[in-house]
Design brief:
The chain is α/β, with parallel strands linked by helices. The chain contains eleven helices and nine strands.
């Protein structure tokens, strides 16, 4: 879209020109994305654009829209451009320091909330490993009043974003720790729940992912640099020693990893292992209980 063609635009003409152009370039959801970017520039709700179709856009509004539009043309995820996304009904700040929260991860949070609801404790201690934007930790803390969450990440930059989200959504309910997996977690701490969506993409598969993902999302959030199973193996081995006797591990796994992950969990000291499907039906969320300690049974 030539800049000159954008100078005398109204809301409707800009929506039409920009979304036609994105569609020609084979972008999905072209109209929706253009509407969301323009609504963001104008400080409006998306549907309110429909009440202002004839509104002429100022030079400043057009300039700000153009910056966003060019980022999208370059395949940057819309969520980074808008700076926000919704997860479990909550608005999370996101940018290139963190993975964009995925819909399938809501399955893990729903399972965690159901397990917490079935526990009798006054306080349920939760450890979230690789918290990223804090989406899992913060939504558990928000939806389960009794949860106290320790959220860790190897990336100090991701922790900055997670802290921002916790500060405005669940102040005082999430504690943060920079840690390579469980290495900085005090060995005497015990948790009723350990949850993680670790990087599980095989390094060789990275280039197969959408440009939005492999070009813009943090590599450390996507892959373990190997076969994708490194952290699933590690967490199924080390988690049981941090779990209370009634504790559970919940792990998000990738396409095709459920069977090996189940075997790892069983040899690692977990029992009653089930892998729940995500909405499209891919086995996605492994849940395992700590095996009863034979000395106490
Ligand atoms: N929890 C977020 C979610 O569900 O959207 C982010 C998950 S992202 C797939 C994995 C996260 O693990 C990233 O934030 C990444 O920085 C972090 N990570 C990668 N390697 C790690 C490690 N060795 N120890 C701790 N965190 C790690
Ligand atoms: N679900 C992400 C993707 O395939 C990967 C996230 C992860 O490795 N946990 O786009």
């Amino acid at each position: 879209m030539a800049d000159s063609a954008m100078t005398t635009q109204t809301v409707l003409s800009l929506l039409t020109t920009a979304s036609d152009h994105l569609r020609e370039k084979r972008f999905d959801e072209a109209r929706l994305h253009v509407e969301l970017m323009l609504a963001n520039v104008l400080g409006l709700k998306r549907l309110d654009l429909y009440l202002q179709f004839d509104r002429p856009l100022t030079e400043d509004e057009l300039a700000r829209f153009r910056v966003m539009y060019r980022r999208r043309l370059d395949h940057e995820p819309l969520q980074y451009i808008l700076g926000t996304t919704e997860f479990m009904g909550l608005p999370f700040i996101v940018d290139q320091r963190v993975l964009v929260p995925r819909a399938e991860t809501e399955v893990l949070v729903e399972k965690a909330l159901a397990i917490i609801a079935g526990m009798q404790h006054d306080v349920v201690h939760v450890l979230d490993i690789g918290t990223g934007s804090g989406n899992i930790a913060v939504s558990i803390a928000h939806h389960a009043q009794r949860a106290r969450v320790l959220a860790t990440d190897l990336s100090a930059e991701a922790l900055e974003v997670a802290r921002l989200n916790a500060d405005h959504l669940v102040p005082g309910k999430v504690e943060f720790l920079e840690s390579d997996m469980v290495s900085a977690v005090p060995p005497d701490r015990r948790f009723e729940l350990i949850v993680s969506n670790p990087p599980y993409v095989r390094v060789a598969d990275l280039v197969e992912l959408q440009e939005e993902v492999h070009k813009f999302e943090p590599r450390v959030a996507l892959t373990d640099g190997g076969d994708g199973m490194k952290y699933i193996r590690l967490l199924t081995q080390v988690a049981p020693s941090f779990l209370t006797s009634d504790g559970c591990l919940l792990l998000e796994v990738g396409y095709g990893q459920a069977e090996e992950a189940t075997a790892c969990a069983t040899t690692g000291g977990l029992t009653d292992v089930v892998v729940y499907p995500d909405f499209p039906g891919i086995p996605r969320v492994l849940v395992g209980k700590r095996k009863p300690d034979p000395t106490h049974s």
